[in-house]
Input
Amino acid sequence: MKNILLNVEGMSCAHCVNSIEGALKEIGANGKVDLANGTVAVEFDESKLTLPVIKEAIEEQGYDVAE
Ligand SMILES: [Cu+2]
Output
């Protein structure tokens, strides 16, 4: 498993947390949102997922992932 920390803009409440963590779960990743820091810790299997797929899942929910 690989762990990454993404800076995500636009997260402000529990709804955002659920949207993002739910979207990550759907693609098979384990996400943990930190609202105070504006970050999402993502744990995923590198043989099954790639970073672009993870970013897309978050962006599809309406949030911007910073490089
Ligand atoms: Cu929200």
In short: DSSP finds two helices and four strands in the chain. Strands lie at 2-9, 30-34, 39-44, 64-66. The first helix runs from residue 14 to 26. Residues 12-13, 15-16 surround copper (II) ion (CB under 6 Å).
